[in-house]
Specification:
The complex is a heterodimer.
Chain A lengths: L2 E10 L4 H11 L6 E6 L5 E10 L1 H13 L3 E8 L3 E12 H5 L3 H8 L3 E5 L3 E8 L1 H11 L6 E4 L3 E4 L5 H13 L1
Chain B lengths: L3 E2 H11 L4 E4 L6 H7 L7 E4 L3 H15 L3 E5 L3 H4 L2 H9 L4 E7 L15 H5 L5 E5 L5 H13 L5 E7 H5 L1 E2 L20 H13 L3 E5 L1 H5 L3 H11 L3 E3 L14 E4 L6 H7 L4 E5 L5 H4 L10 E6 L13 E4 L2 H8 L9 H23 L8 H11 L5 E4 L3 H9 L8 E3 L9 H11 L5 E6 H4 L6 H7 L4 E6 L4 H10 L14 H7 L3 E5 L2 H13 L4 E6 L23
Parallel strand pairs in B: 2-3, 2-4, 4-5, 5-7, 6-7, 9-10, 9-12, 10-11, 12-13, 13-14, 15-16, 15-17, 17-18, 18-20, 19-20
Antiparallel strand pairs in B: 1-8
Classes of the chains: A alpha+beta, B alpha/beta.
Chain lengths: 177, 562
């Protein structure tokens, strides 16, 4: 049965890492729903959050293959229930729709969107939340002449408590033996 | 300390790693390295091949027969892309290689410069690791890491791409072997609980069965495997690349697995109760229809590559470990037993194959020479001690079936990738790694022509390789499938061949062509006794089929004897 799985990959910060990871999905004709990458809590270690819709069996095998990549420190996979996840989205709308008062302002407030910038021509809003919340705000703003829209892709943190540092420590202890 | 060029650092790094033989082909972007090599001709024997694919296959043959890392050099662009087949082959067959490619100067990267190609991007899926080096001072570290990664854990090919400015750049040379990479865990600790669980299953089993693969050879576990099998009394069968890991004349050896393997070891896979698989990866050519493969058995799988565990079959016990370390531990836990009745079942099944296939294959009643009788006689004349490098196709399956590999590291063939053209260059590498051993390349008429240019390498470096062409004037394996599964529609499998002995003559290689049974013994003697390279063309039956066969989609239980 296919479900959404959140794959977290911790890697060295070396050239081509994104390619090394994504070709593993490409080879198996697996579509990546969302991918984000940046430095993790450990300096020099990057964290990728990848969302795919596949069976648990497929995800397990893919994660094993990802872990084989030399510069990958560790990879995990979790179902949606096992993680807390969010996306961030930015919306650019004409400033005059806010200035005219009323409906647009009500929408922004009710969605708890933040105003990042107000320029004479446009205003930029920010909303953090689940994908459907972001989509909902998008749909409501659309009639007001949404100029531009971007969303980040998912970032996720797993609920289990073992830290990455502990994982690395455990793996290195095995090396010494 | 006086400074040296990056190019000289490449050569000195190779020497620091104990490399004495390399294969390669020069070109624009690797010229500085070749220039540096000119001063080290005494320390490093460079073999000039005729095509980069020949170079990398030679490095593979060298690595696989001499338990070391193969090294090859190629230039940028087409030189590098010509390595790709060999990289893919080495990747799937776990062969340690370090390939060094030249690259355009770093300021030209991404500009579509002459002979520029994204070799890092192209080779990424077919290397264990690759890296581009743009500064001379980074060369020793990159190469040290390359050798460490290629050799450790599950071995594999590594590519180091060095820009021309890095080759010209000056640096202080200081070489430190790489022994650890923080994100890389090549030596898993044997899990004692898993070993206990495995031993319990084996000790209680009524019909236990062992399958071995190349992991035995790669971890030098041949002796402990023999001890383990003799103590536990369990019948043992081998995959294609595992041939040679266990003595074929041992009473507990039951044969060769897979699509064209022996009857008994395939059928009994679906009758055993505990299946112990060591250093093999349940390739589809071994399992047949995996949904009907060993379903009745509890499977214990020992492999150093974690991703192989529970990849194809579901294990009762997984042992993530080096094969030798796992067996060293497991042998202390298994009880001394014998399984005579179970072993007899193998012998009974074996007789079916003997009567239906083998006797007729090695003592044929047909007029035309059969591939099997040629290989069988070669096996007898060499007492199973020669290094046999087979190509891909019918002759490869016949060789695997009828050559008795009695010595270690003597079975060289392209298993996972099935690369036609592999054998001739791989045999060159095998001979250079084992000058005192007889090396025989057994090749079909099709595969021989895929890398035929390497006869030039044999000529130039006087390499004593015996070339046995089994010529049926067909791309035989495809023809067999066309006969069996495509209504004998022989679509582009009949092949018009050149005069092979004339070609050998052009390269000053002694040769002989035979097409009669009566000539076979003398011709093999002449080939084996010759003091230099020799090409023997045996013209064999045109439409011979290899049996037994597990057809695609069939279960191993449904193996056909005809």
């Amino acid at each position: 049965m296919e479900n959404a799985y959140n794959i977290s990959v911790f890697t060295e910060n070396s050239v081509g890492m994104l390619n090394r990871i994504t070709i593993i999905f490409t080879r198996r004709n697996i579509n990546i729903e969302s991918i984000t990458a940046s430095e993790s809590e450990l300096e020099g270690i990057h964290r990728y959050t990848i969302v795919i819709n596949e069976s648990k069996e497929t995800v397990r095998k893919v994660v094993s293959q990802i872990e084989k990549v030399i510069d990958v420190v560790k990879a995990f996979y979790h179902s949606d229930e096992e993680v807390v996840y969010q996306e961030i989205a930015l919306y650019k709308i004409p400033t005059n729709v806010l200035a005219s008062g009323g409906e647009a302002e009500r929408i922004v407030r009710s969605h708890h969107a933040r105003i990042l910038t107000i320029e004479p021509e446009f205003t930029i809003l920010e909303k953090t939340g689940y994908p459907d919340e972001i989509k909902e705000l998008f749909l409501e703003l659309k009639p007001f002449g949404l100029l531009e829209f971007v969303r980040s892709g998912r970032v996720a943190i797993s609920k289990p408590m073992k830290t990455l540092e502990k994982h690395i420590e455990d793996m290195n202890n095995e090396k010494i033996i | 300390m006086s400074q040296i060029t990056g190019s000289e650092a490449v050569i000195k790094s190779l020497i620091s790693e104990g490399v004495h033989t390399i294969f390669g082909y020069p070109g624009g972007a690797i010229m500085p390295i070749y220039d540096a090599l000119y001063d080290y001709k005494e320390q490093i024997n460079h073999i000039l091949v005729r095509h980069e694919q020949g170079g990398i296959h030679a490095a593979q043959g060298f690595a696989r027969t001499s338990e070391t890392c193969g090294v090859c050099l190629a230039t940028s662009g087409p030189g590098a892309t010509n390595l790709i087949t060999g990289l893919a082959d080495a990747m799937i067959d776990s062969t340690p290689l370090v390939c060094i490619t030249g690259q355009v100067a770093s300021h030209l990267l991404g500009t579509d410069a002459f002979q520029e190609t994204d070799v890092i991007g192209i080779s990424m899926p077919v290397t264990k690791w690759n890296v581009q080096v743009k500064r001379a001072e980074d060369i020793p570290v990159a190469l040290a890491k390359a050798f460490y990664i290629a050799r450790s854990g599950r071995p594999g090919p590594v590519l180091v791409d060095i820009t021309k400015d890095a080759q010209f750049g000056m640096m202080d040379f200081d070489y430190k072997l790489c022994t650890d990479i923080r994100s890389y865990f090549p030596n898993p600790v044997v899990d004692k609980e898993a070993i206990d669980n495995a031993a319990n299953l084996l000790n209680q089993a009524k019909k236990p069965y062992i399958l071995v693969g190349q992991g035995i050879t790669l971890s030098n576990a041949e002796q402990v495997l023999l001890d383990f099998v003799e103590k536990s009394g369990i019948p043992v069968a081998s995959t294609l690349l595992g041939l040679g890991a266990f003595p074929p004349d041992h009473p507990l050896y039951v044969g060769y697995l897979g699509m064209h393997g022996n009857y008994a070891p395939n059928v009994k896979t679906n009758e055993c109760d505990v299946l112990l698989a060591i250093g093999m990866r349940f390739d589809d050519r071994v399992t047949g229809d995996v949904s009907r493969y060993a379903k009745q058995a509890k499977i214990i799988h020992i492999d150093i590559d974690f991703a192989e565990l529970n990849k194809i079959v579901t294990n009762e016990v997984s042992v993530h470990a080096d094969a030798k370390e796992a067996l060293d531990s497991l042998i202390t836990k298994v009880e001394k037993r014998s399984h005579d009745a179970w072993l007899q079942e193998f012998r009974d099944a074996e007789k079916l194959e003997m009567d239906a296939v083998i006797i007729d294959a090695i003592h044929p009643k047909h007029d035309r020479l059969q591939m099997a009788e040629v290989v069988n006689m070669l096996s007898e004349k060499t007492n199973g001690q020669a290094i046999i490098v087979s190509d891909v196709g019918q002759h490869q399956m016949v060789t695997s079936r009828y050559y008795q590999y009695k010595a270690q590291n003597t079975n060289i063939t392209s298993g996972g990738l099935g690369t036609m053209g592999f054998a001739l260059p791989a045999a060159i590498g095998a001979k250079l790694g084992n000058p005192s051993k007889t090396v025989v390349a057994i090749i079909g008429d099709g595969g021989f022509q895929m890398t035929i240019q390497e006869l030039g390498t044999i000529l130039q470096f006087k390499i004593d390789v015996k070339i046995l062409i089994l010529n049926n004037n067909f791309l035989g394996m495809v023809r067999q499938w066309q006969e069996m599964f495509f209504e004998k529609r022989y679509s582009f499998t009949d092949i018009v061949n050149p005069n092979f002995t004339q070609i050998a003559k052009g390269y000053s290689i002694d040769s002989k062509r035979i097409d009669q049974r009566i000539e076979l013994s003398d011709a093999l003697d002449e080939m084996l006794d010759s003091k230099s390279a020799f090409l023997l063309e045996a013209v064999v039956e045109q439409e011979e089929n290899v049996f037994p066969m597990v057809a695609t989609g069939a279960s191993v239980s449904e193996i056909r004897l005809k």
